[in-house]
Design goal:
about 375 residues, mainly alpha, two-stranded antiparallel ribbon, two-stranded antiparallel sheet, 14 helices, about 65% helix, flat, transmembrane, Put_GTT3, transmembrane helix, membrane
Length: about 375
């Protein structure tokens, strides 16, 4: 399983097709999902290990390691070894006129001396060709170590830098694929829309105050602080606990999260049915993003574009003057919450819901 972690998502998809597992994956699955499912399949089916090993060895992202230029230069500075002294002491090399043992020994001695001269000449030419003007320093035995060892060290540093570069490149490729898979999903678009609206509500109700005017700073603390610090600005968290903010959050949660999520969970058309006549209960998403966005769009239109009738005003006055009736109280909170939402957002939620509906429709229809 550790070997397939180095593959890209495209390679994992191709490997899944070769193993006949392409129908068990979705286009929106992340790379980690492919690694986990393929790893479990390899563990359960050991006979496919040779196929996987062969595929991994032929699809490695990293190019094969090559010897660095510095290492090649260092190796070129090493001196060639002395040629072996293999004498051909045959009858032809000694000469036909040699008849005594002394003459044979003399011929062998002359042959050895001539071969030594040839070897020394070969070493001199080789050293001069490698070292150029520095050939006169070759009589020192430590020259080879001084000239080649630093280059070997620098070569290893170069190789480690190249390895780190490939590791960093592979890391960014994996992260880019993960981010692209995450963003290229209708569920992610819906989530981004929800979080944007929520944080805008917080920003709208956010206020600054001073330490001296803050009610959540104890009076004992204020009395013991320096006088100059009492005018310092701090966040006023009291606005997040008043009736107006809580009503807006509650009404917005109902029309933007609760009801769309409830309906889209049961009315879900994202079931995958791709294995012949078998009916699978495998859903791409736990809720249908198209139904979610459509329900949110309808409820947002009702709240933000609905007309205020005379009966609404009458019920509001009844509750304000009498303070009786649960029905009038609930209707009053919804009435004020709807007005606050109109004041905060305007028509922005309608445009956002329409855009997310179109994106979800495009994503779901293009994947089938």
């Amino acid at each position: 399983m550790s070997s397939i972690k180095k593959l890209r998502k495209v390679d994992l998809q191709e490997l899944a097709e070769e193993l006949g597992l392409s129908n068990q994956f979705l286009e929106t699955d992340l790379k980690q999902v492919y690694i986990e499912k393929l790893g479990n399949f390899i563990v359960q089916n050991p006979d496919v290990s040779p196929i996987v090993s062969k595929y991994v060895s032929s699809h490695k992202n990293r190019s094969p390691s090559k010897s660095s230029p510095l290492k090649q230069l260092a190796s070129s500075l090493k001196f060639p070894s002395t040629p072996s002294k293999n004498l051909d002491v045959s009858e032809n090399s000694i000469g036909s006129g040699a008849s005594t043992d002394d003459e044979v020994e003399e011929e062998v001695t002359q042959a050895e001396s001539s071969e030594d001269e040839t070897a020394n000449g070969f070493e001199a030419v080789s050293e001069e060709s490698h070292l150029g003007p520095f050939s006169k320093f070759t009589k020192f035995s430590f020259f080879e170590k001084i000239s080649s060892k630093p280059l070997e060290i620098y070569g290893s540093i170069y190789d480690s830098i190249v390895d780190k570069y490939y590791d960093l490149e592979e890391f960014f490729e994996d992260q880019n694929e993960s981010v692209r898979d995450l963003v290229s999903s209708p569920v992610s678009i819906v989530g981004a829309e929800i979080f944007t609206e929520f944080f805008y509500i917080l920003y709208y109700h956010f206020e600054w105050t001073t330490i001296s005017r803050s009610y959540y700073v104890p009076q004992l603390v204020k009395e013991n602080l320096p006088y100059n610090t009492l005018s310092w600005p701090i966040w006023n968290f009291e606005t997040f606990f008043n009736d107006s903010f809580l009503t807006v959050i509650f009404l917005w949660s109902l029309i933007s999260i609760f009801f769309p999520l409830l309906i889209s969970f049961y009315v879900n058309f994202t079931a995958v049915k791709k294995q012949g006549n078998r009916k699978l209960k495998n859903y791409k998403y736990s809720f249908d993003p198209l139904i979610f966005s459509l329900v949110k769009l309808i409820l947002t239109l009702i709240i933000l574009q609905g007309d205020i009738s005379f009966d609404d005003v009458k019920d509001e006055l009844v509750y304000r003057f009498t303070g009786e009736g649960i029905f009038y109280a609930i209707k009053s909170y919804i009435f004020h919450g709807a007005l606050d939402l109109r004041l905060i957002f305007g028509n922005a939620p309608i445009l956002g819901s329409a855009a997310s509906t179109f994106i979800a429709l495009y994503a779901l229809t293009s994947s089938f």
